[in-house]
């Protein structure tokens, strides 16, 4: 993206519908600490990693099986000085069919190299998008943050 927001692209051998459905099962690939509605336009959910880190999201776009946008409406990132650094950012999933399956372009719009959490957050997203989500699609079991 032209604004240097974090973007990760993967291609998986699944259908767009399977990828879309997997993304909406956020507790299966990101964190078991998901509470709320993750599969309805206008739905809201909260993510936690079971520390003082949490974020509240609203689904502002929900177009099966092509696009999902989560707007961060509130956040607390306990490991950096600006605890609300994610508030106002967007997490975007663009899903397109390819000859080999499906291309997923993940963008955390607003997560730029100039902000404090970029290094740690980009490593986290890299793990969940490049490893956990594809594992969920391939085996039915991802590697989310587990409940203590």
TrEMBL record:
Domain of life, source organism: Bacteria
Coiled coil start-end: none
Annotated Activator of Hsp90 ATPase homologue 1/2-like C-terminal domain residues: 15-137
A Pfam family assignment: AHSA1
SUPFAM superfamilies given in the database record: Bet v1-like
Family: Belongs to the AHA1 family.
Official protein name in the record: Activator of Hsp90 ATPase homologue 1/2-like C-terminal domain-containing protein
The organism's taxonomic lineage, starting at the top: Bacteria, Bacillati, Actinomycetota, Actinomycetes, Mycobacteriales
